[in-house]
Amino acid sequence: MSVWLGSEMTRPFRKLSPSIFAHSRTRAMKRFCVLLAAVLATVNVEARVERVEVLSRSDVLAGKRFGDTGSYEKLIGKVFFAVKPDAASNRIIVDLEKAPRNAQGEVEFAADVYILKPKETARSSGTALIEIPNRGGKGVLRVVQNAKGSSDPTTAEEFGDGFLMRRGVTLMWVGWQRDVRNESGLMRLYTPIAKAPADKAITGLVRSDFVVNQKMMEHPLGHVIRGKVGGTEYACVDPNDPANVLTVRDAPMAARRTIPRGEWQFVEAGAWKLGLGLRAIHLNGGFEAGKIYEVIYRARDPVVVGLGLAAVRDFASYLKGDHNDIAPVKRVYAMGISQCGRFLRHFLLQGFNADEAGKQAVDGMLIHVAGAGVGSFNHRFAQPSRDAQPTNALFYPTDLFPFADTPQTDPETGQTAGLLDRAKAAKVLPNIFYTNTSYEYWSRAASLIHTSPDGKRDLPLMDKVRIYFLAGLQHFSASFPPEHDNEGILLGQNLPNPNPVLYFWRALFVAMDDWVRDGKAPPASRYPKLSDKTLVRPNEVKFPRIPNVHLPDRVQQAFHLDFGPQWKNRIITKQPPGVGSAFPVFVPQVDENGNDLGGLRLPELEVPLATYTGWNLRDPKTGMPNERVAFIGSYLPLPNTKNEDAGDARIPITKRYRSRDEYLKKFRDAANKLAADRFLLPEDVEALVRRGGEEWDLVMGDAR
């Protein structure tokens, strides 16, 4: 399968020169290459963008006009960077000093860039929104403009309703991730290899864990999600190395069992053997569904992964510079979803919002469904695609202290630190929205961003920070009407949660823009708290009795992890890491319907037809039925005249509402209240009410 193919991302750096990336361009791209837009920035070394090459330029939707903004154009190209290894802002980049240098003593690298901008600069709002690409993809048009997902939006369906474009926003994506698959349309980072003195290769231990949902003979060493997205992998350098070990266990915290070396082999990945090295693993007899497999092996030639953080920093800084005539803007926001929300937290933690000149790069951040995490974004042999799911991608450098913005003390280690210490000290603190759904409280330790490390108190927030809990949503919105996952990868015991995040996102973008542009304060934070008992320990949740539905046995925790004595230099020498004590985590309390309290509640929760959770348990046929499904919540319709059950403690729909009209009136009142509080745009009220009517028809079986 092509999904298993690895890619050698580092070959262009064997010889550094101004044309080091020329051979990586496909012939198709050369044919479409329009003028070389700009070899810009050589006169301003502080921006660290050496030049931007535009490889294709085209009108969006044949010149369609988006309100007063007018028409948009699409630019696709590459941005070339050079950084000084000894600059204070760059010394935190792991192995940067081991990368090849050009004649000026700088390290060169590059990234894909994709821009949607107003054709008439005068009609631009002056705001650029950089979406941090999730595994190389593009999600903002789908999430905010209700568009069909695409890695290269071209059709009207793929641009959706044009919400951001009508507002004159310049939309941008820049590659930051070294292990993105080599597939058309994905945004990639091109980084050099780190070498030991005398150009000797660096080796180290790499770990890969995975779960399959049906029996299979081979699995890639890289991280795979739904067989469609994920990362490439480091190849095994020596299949006979005694450090190579494969284990299996029955649950995340269960004991590992070593599989004899003669029963498995490293192989090339996928159906096509491209000579890219041993990048998959084969097990005699096959991998079994519902087991956690973990392989540790020796790899070589780590790339300088942390340059992805510098790429976002320097491109954001460049955009606001006077020398930028590709897409001149006055302010830059960064949006990160899931993996990329963790990327932005990591970006802030390590002080990347100050460029080499000490100037602020990003003015506002929308950090969505990141929980309390950071990620594998700046250490040796880092695998950025790894996350932290309920049953795999476990015990990577994802959920690490500090979790909260303000300085706190870890009661076990005595370390005192805050996520925003560096940004505050450098006076480059952006305006920040943290948004999390119910899933992140159950499966991404989200409570740690606003509770003390000892779990005893709520924490005060900084003036430039808002936290919004999007109650009753899952990690990403399921389609409506909800259906079970037909591939089985995300198959749960209950239907997935279809509550839409779209309307919150639109209102929050406007609130952020008003905050940065005009200084208009956004709505106050809204999230569950220990003080009012809307945030509780998992065993204190008062979930109603629903036939055949059970709360998860455990919640995702953040542990003290031991990666070995070199971790202080961001080098992992202990694989797997030692797992110590856990930090206390909490989840939202629920109302009598089982719906979350303490956050922003859609009308679906205020005027319910169902219970909407952020957790779902694995279907028994995929194994581990007591564990949570990654990313997915549950949709549990309330009883009505057709499905009333004496074992269901929830009040039936027919005893709540006398008619569809009464239900929709209450629904509309709840929507208008959200709009009055600035969490829903007035223009979106009617669309949300229509959605409420569709759900009534679905649950009640109304034919209209």
Question: Can you characterise this structure?
Answer:
There is one protein chain. The chain has 3 domains: 1-193 and 303-329, no CATH class; 203-300, no CATH class; 372-558 and 584-704, no CATH class. The protein is α+β, with helices and mostly antiparallel strands and 704 residues long. The strands form 8 sheets. Strands 1, 2, 3, 4, 5, 6, 16, 17, 20 and 21 form a 10-stranded mixed sheet that branches. Strands 7-15-11-12 form a 4-stranded antiparallel sheet, with no helix packed on it. A 3-stranded antiparallel sheet has the order 8-14-13, with no helix packed on it. The radius of gyration is 25 Å and the shape is globular. It is 15% helix and 20% strand. α11 runs antiparallel to α12 (685-700).
In short:
With 704 residues, this protein is of the alpha+beta class.
What is this structure's SSE topology?
Layout: H1 27-32, E1 49-59, E2 72-83, E3 107-118, E4 127-131, H2 140-145, H3 156-159, H4 163-166, E5 170-174, E6 189-190, E7 203-211, E8 216-220, E9 224-225, E10 229-230, E11 245-249, E12 257-258, E13 264-267, E14 280-287, E15 292-300, H5 307-319, E16 331-337, H6 339-349, E17 364-368, E18 408-409, E19 416-417, H7 421-425, E20 431-437, H8 438-443, E21 465-470, H9 502-518, E22 535-536, E23 559-562, E24 578-582, E25 587-588, H10 603-606, E26 610-613, E27 634-637, H11 660-676, H12 685-700
Parallel strand pairs: 4-5, 4-16, 16-17, 17-20, 20-21
Antiparallel strand pairs: 1-2, 2-3, 3-5, 3-6, 7-15, 8-14, 9-10, 11-12, 11-15, 13-14, 18-19, 22-25, 23-24, 26-27
Helix pairs in contact: 11-12
